[in-house]
Amino acid sequence: AVVLNACYSVFAAEELSEFVECVVGMGNKIDNDSAREFALAFYESLAFGRDYATAFRFGYKAIDLNHMPDSDQPIAFLPGMKTSDASIARQTSSISGRKQRSELPKSTSLESVKNEQVVSVKLWYGTNRKPNDTLRLDLGFSNDRDDKINFGTCEVAVPRRRAVGSLGSWAWYRWLTWNDDRVKLDWKSLVKYEPISFWKSLQQSVKSLEDGKKHAVVFIHGFNVSFKDAALRTAQLAVDLPLPGPATFFSWPSRGYMLGYAADEATIRYTEKYLIEFLTNFVQQSGAERIHLIAHSMGNRGLLDAMDKVIAALKCEKPFDQVILAAPDVDLGEFGQKAEIYARAAKQTTLY
pTM for the complete prediction? Predict the structure, then answer.
């Protein structure tokens, strides 16, 4: 089998089909992300023992399931036929007009649901990770420490057909059901803000809510978590709880792998200064009437150490509403010494 991912490669594919059992080419222009998604699904399907025709169907359906353009562009030349009937149909539709990325739905909040299969969630983030490339934000953030907080927003697609609490099914189940239910971060949606612009953007989102519903939530992730994983989990929580108001996460530079535990222990201590700054400004500048915190795993160490200083900086009692301590990776004795701070910091604290 030969797959030609380049634009307008259908003509070369047709020539190759005289000598190769299965050839796939692209009938017109194709988006880079769509081409990669097609190839991934096509080759994975072959690896699971599917025939060429089934693998081809998985390929172009993967583009649709990920809400990308160009599912009509892959054209297959299969054994016993010049093109498959499905390919001819898609080739015809590409002449009459194909989807463009600019036409795809793009929501600005959890309330903006633009299609039947996916909820697009806008998230606000603060991180003391260094960007992989200062000129290419779509390349995301690294696991290295920065000496400042980087602010921004991003969008995550959360499929409706997905188990509550899940970020997606195992690969074998997706192939059996033909349902790609993975939660996915749109890297191209990442936007960087200067601090003043970030807080103004967050204020506008809160301001648009009805009185009594001006809530906001901040998620602080734990050990062995990348920036991407933090974004996915925040979006999943926002959809499944569901949380009123803007969903925000603070991503500290965890190494993102199991053997990085010792490094993460040091990094969460290093992050305390930035977490104090972020939470203090969140209370003062978000405009939210009720602010909820969710800390998971080692993120609880940062929150526990930071909370006392946040209260001192704000000079007020109970600035937070609900605080959720999920599977906190904190020494029992240390927690016993410091936990009383939560009684002064929040209306209610729940430990799981």
Answer: 0.69
